[in-house]
Amino acid sequence: MAVIIKKEPEQKTITIAELLPEVIAIRKRGMRVCQICAAWVNEQFELSYTFANDGNYLLLTLRVVIDKDVEVPSITPIYPSAVFYENEMKELFGVKVENISMDYKDKFYRIEEKTPFGPESEDE
Amino acid sequence: MARKHKRNIVPFGPQHPVLPEPIHLDLVLDDEKVVGVIPSVGFIHRGLEGLVDKRDFKEMVYVAERTCGICSFQHGMGYCEAVEQIMDIEVPPRAKYLRTIWGETSRLHSHLLWLGLMADAFGFESLFYQCWRIREKILDLIELSTGGRVIFSVNQIGGVLKDMDAEMLKHFLDVLAEAETEVREIQKTFMLDYTVQSRTVGVGVMTKRQIHACGSVGPFARASGFKVDMRKLGYEAYPDLDFEPVISNDGDCYARCDVRIREIFQSIDLIRQAAAKIPDSELAAKVKGNPDGECFARIEQPRGEAIYYVRGTGKKFVNRMRIRTPTFANLPGLCEMLKNADYADVPLMILTIDPCISCTER
Question: Residues in domain NADH:ubiquinone oxidoreductase 30kDa subunit (chain A) (predicted)?
Answer without folding.
Answer: 30-99
